[in-house]
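Minutes, project huddle
Topic: does the predicted pose make sense with S-adenosylmethionine bound?
PN asked that the exact inputs be recorded in the minutes so nobody has to dig through chat later. Recorded below.
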Amino acid sequence: MFLDCITEWISSRRFKPVPIRLDSGVPASYPIPLEMGQVLLHSHYQMLQDEDRVAHFRRAIEDLITSDDIVLDIGTGSGILALLAAERARKVYAVEVDPAIAGFAARAFDASPNREKLTLFLGDAAYLRLPERVDVITCELLDTVLLNEPQVEILRLAGSRLLKPDGRFIPAYARNFVALANCSFRFYERIDLRVAHWEPTDLPSARELTPWAEYCRLTFGPDAPEGVDAQVVLRANHRGTATAVKLMTVTGFGNGDEVGPCLTMNRPLVIPIPEKLDIVPDAAYRVRLSYRFGERYQNVRCSAARL
Ligand SMILES: C[S@@+](CC[C@H](N)C(=O)[O-])C[C@H]1O[C@@H](n2cnc3c(N)ncnc32)[C@H](O)[C@@H]1O
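Predicted holo structure (tokens), as shared on screen:
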């Protein structure tokens, strides 16, 4: 299957290679570093199934892209955002690092009535060079609180090198929230699994003991910070034992639209805290969070204390 995809990709007339960073410690026999936010093919199936997610991007593309615009779609995956952008824009460049899914995008581009507008690059967006600067960058390397995918880093680089000075990003910003929560981490009275995990939207694992507080709002682009070091005060509205922080992101598209957790994006992330904390309604608690964007939840430093 994987080889079929690569063969299909290489035989595509749209093959345009871009270097790939090989410094991620992945065994040399595997051609693609797995630390760069790639997702498996079934995830692309689910992302396409997630009509809510795609609808927000579609609306932003319709609202913010004009027929004069040149667009770059970073991490094009199946090609969906590039294809939607090509319905509005003058020209669309797309880049994807994973040859398996890029094969599908290549085929979809070739079948598109807008195929003459579309150019696909295979490789790392960090090394992409274009013959011209673009008006709009679309990019869905979004992960809850910007932890596991390189959205912030890639848009810092692309924003300074590939975007016109008055260019726009879709999405435009992310707002990140934290709450103290109770999560048991214990299963069948036998297993303790104190690990960070995404909550499926329909299967909550952690009960919130405080309201959500926004701890970081970040605008994508060259001036975005590399990480966050924030403190918030949370006033409890439930009694219980806090064992975790629950993190959540709301993505803003730049057309007034925002989206929080949906099936395949911005799902709440639960991270265990070092010490359990008794939570009493109306008492105030300070939570401190620091981490670098895109460097995975292992780099999160988190503490919580009663004030
Ligand atoms: C969350 S998926 C989004 C796919 C598609 N844009 C969509 O909205 O359905 C992110 C995609 O970005 C790709 N990607 C991750 N890091 C990349 C990089 N540095 N350069 C190019 N593509 C990258 C992944 O392989 C994956 O296909």
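Observations noted during the meeting:
- The chain has six helices and 17 strands.
- Residues 2-140 form a domain with the Rossmann fold fold (CATH 3.40.50.150).
No decisions taken; revisit at the next huddle.
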